[in-house]
Amino acid sequence: MHALPAFLALLLLSAGLSAADASKKAPQKEIVWHDASQWKPAGRAWDDTPSHYSRLPQRAEGKVTKAVWRLSRNSAGLVVYFRTNAPVIHTRHEVSGELAKPHMTATGVSGLDLYARAPNGQWRWAGSSKPKNKIHEEKILNGATPEWRDYMLYLPLYNNTTSVEIGVPEGSGFEPVAPPQAKPIVYYGTSIAHGCSASRPGMTTPAILGRKLDTPVINLGFSGNGKMEPAMAGLVAEIDASVFVLDCLPNMSSLAADEITKRTENCIRAIRKKHPATPIILMEDRSYANAWILPRQFKKNETARAALRVAYETLAAEGVKGVTYVTGGQLFGDDDEGTVDSSHPSDLGMYRQAEILLPVLKRVLKE
Amino acid sequence: MHALPAFLALLLLSAGLSAADASKKAPQKEIVWHDASQWKPAGRAWDDTPSHYSRLPQRAEGKVTKAVWRLSRNSAGLVVYFRTNAPVIHTRHEVSGELAKPHMTATGVSGLDLYARAPNGQWRWAGSSKPKNKIHEEKILNGATPEWRDYMLYLPLYNNTTSVEIGVPEGSGFEPVAPPQAKPIVYYGTSIAHGCSASRPGMTTPAILGRKLDTPVINLGFSGNGKMEPAMAGLVAEIDASVFVLDCLPNMSSLAADEITKRTENCIRAIRKKHPATPIILMEDRSYANAWILPRQFKKNETARAALRVAYETLAAEGVKGVTYVTGGQLFGDDDEGTVDSSHPSDLGMYRQAEILLPVLKRVLKE
Question: Can you give the residue ranges of the SGNH hydrolase-type esterase N-terminal domain (chains A, B) (predicted)?
């Protein structure tokens, strides 16, 4: 038996239990911790990142905007794969920023989210954490049957993650797993792709699609800053993707119409130059959930979509192939109930959007 | 023009604008505030409550458990009705407790949520607030066409609300609206009914059902404490309901099986004594989202449901009529994705649960 902290020994004694009694009742095994920075996470397109849980290469600093660079440090979409037969899985992780947003939970902003491969081959949800401090330790799974399983651990969406450790009881097996080798979906977008306001990191639209298609996803969502600047278009085009999803219009709708058109055309040309045949999904912006009552919001959707449509048609006329246009009107549903704040989807909106994109992705990935 | 605060005048001057210039660009009208404590909210079953935004009568103190009494001070399910033709609606409200939970947003715990009656008669979402402090002021709607509309303003789910004011620009019309007179759905339950983890106050299952059926709902959800004690059963039975929904099993599953059975039978008998023909919906507990991997959670669901089923069958054998039994297995969906933490539904789980209950309620309300 290993030493008990003095305060705990006192507590047990004062409750009429000796430390030895307590030990008999629930023998505590040592936790063996595994530092996830020792193997590569899925969802990270580059190796030369400024930190292990960061999304853009160091050389992008100074080329992308300061805001994009700052947001690229958020661990959105990064997933640690591992295998274990442990009945209990502990997590201990550290983030550097605010734990929550008013319209987004700490679990989503700063928490971890665990899925396991079920016997039928599907990824099924297993556990999430409820961070109350920047350093947070939790039994994320407690009482599983001790079979070997593959796990995916999604990292915090809207925080910089500085450390992730996975703990299993002494004697349980544990193996780091390298990220899947398949070409990833590259999902470039705004706060919505980034994950606001998923209740937990596994419930972003890109993450849901990744599980349903059992394929890796690169989340390049940058809150408020998915704007297809040339530097970002160039970085997106570097990735050897299975499909590119471009979901930037919710941020670009604040630009002039001709700028929306120009950036969209240039971004798609940059991708096509390097990837002549890779499918591209060009998404309209989601409808504001209160656009029905606020004419200004309705107009903003309409104007942005018209400008995006011009880009799509210009490229088609130029002979650019393989671009699928997805309309935005019902991405979060047809009842205005899919958002927390008009703009940002709850899990309901995230899920509905995934349901719309799933058949589109299946089709273009099969072609 | 009314006086500008000195700091604002300075700010405008330093930006090269005179106060008169700013005034020309965006003439600021005075806000006329309406204190919502001046008329009764919907969702409150009793008038003799200890505060305007509280859910149980004063005489319940000392009869219900301390925890239930404390939680009854939360404004879950209370809705302020009003009419206005204002293009801008301001809200200013105060809560007394923690703004958020790790797995629930401040918008849901402490925020306001606005719906408007659309021309087709449906309630459609219009705006929500993002509280950052206990006293929070916000333009919850900005830029509506200036038509007369009915509005519903849902109050915070998991906080004690001490004050709610609704502001409209000087010159706009405003009318308090009394709560609907129809018999309410009485929804008695746990944290799930109470609203954890809806992203905003309008997204609890009871609230969704209320809008879809266009009927008032009394939310008697008490986080961790929906346990059908005799005192609570008596209070529930006081209400002249259109239907009673009993959704307490997620909290009662920690009780012994025979206690679950006994309390359920006694609660339904108490209701039947006063309401011989009012429909009663008896709900099983939702499946834990990770019950597939955690045998203990699976067993907990199974044991509790068996005990509930005994109560249902005993009552049926006694000749008690009008009790509809709803199974719990798929209340939040069939894919384990409907919760934030295994137990508490996100908006996705809340919505799916409402979709299951809606046809049941429609049927029993028609009979």
Answer: 32-172
